[in-house]
Amino acid sequence: MIDDETLARAVRQGILEPGQRDALIALARGGAGSGPLPEDESPSLSVDDQMRLVGGGNDIFVTVGIVLLFSGALFALRAVFPPDSLAIAPVLALASWIVAEIVTRQKRMRLSSTLLALAFSGAVLSMLVTFIARSFELPQTLNAFSLLALRAQAWPIGLTLGGGMIAAAALYFLRFKVPVLAAVAAIAATGLAFLGAVVLYHDRLVSGATAAPAPEQLAEVLSNALAVPLVCGLAIFAVAVMLDLRDRERQTVWSDCAFWLHVVSAPLLVHPLFILATGQEVLSGRIEPGVTAGVLLALMMVMFVLVALAIDRRSLLAPTLAYFGSVGIYYLVNGAANSTGIPPFALILIVVGAVVILFGAGWQRIRRLIIRPILPTSVLNRLPPIKA
């Protein structure tokens, strides 16, 4: 019997259409001549589920071998070379590339390929950090005052680190097409954006264009700085949606890249919007539980749920639920928990767990019941298809 992986490869190579693949699976599960399966028994997986992170038992087996191989290699290299040697990181980066030529290029193992790409990125990051430490005169102790002395070297250091990571991720992606590298590049680009904002604010302070904040104004300054992650999150989210719209059936590597971009964009969007909506104090993290904060928090959760359902991305919804559950719900239910004697953490687990199970078990039905009636047909035709 042909397995699901072979059928998926046939779709990617254009041998089968997605509908033909589903029909073959339905025929195999229902038996010859039994006709189409009922809706509850038919393969109604969301297209988002086609972004599988594990290719099978052999993939897990090889992943364990990669962990053992590179762990042993790291200890061996540290025993041979000094800890600050420039040779360790390049050797690990080269080793991950060589192993990827077999595991990724030939075998296309998903989990192993993701781990190798992250190992390569980590080795490049270590190499760049070591190079920066040797090439630039960094202060022995890093604090707010010592960092101000690095203004002249800020952009060379930032471009070396962030630009080097983006270039390495692009080079590795061109060779192996591993989707997780989209997240690596997005994080590096976000770091460069943060650096640009800090340098701009520093220059305005030095030139006198902006007055130095008083101690009681630090919270306001930090709140204004939330515009940086918010803008970066919106930009990354926009790129992810663009990739999704180009591949509605989620059959190419670009939709897998969009998956990781949604994972990166979610916390960048959720944290600033949460603080702006609830009025959380940036320095202390306190939130005054009240009707306004509760209503705004509920509206934000509804907004993110609707967006995730529309674009068919649970990867956008999962970090959102985790953040609201760990931060927002804690503060807003803390008062109720104290009056009932139930620990706040227990209420958080109950609420978030129930929501996750609900959406996980009936994702496509929820999409069909909510998204189809509220969006026009012209918009639905551009979004990932809703399973009947």
UniProtKB/TrEMBL annotation:
The chain crosses the membrane at residues 60-81, 87-103, 115-133, 153-174, 181-201, 221-245, 257-278, 290-309, 316-333, 345-363. Coiled coil: none annotated. Keywords: Membrane, Transmembrane, Transmembrane helix. This is DUF2157 domain-containing protein. It comes from Hoeflea olei.
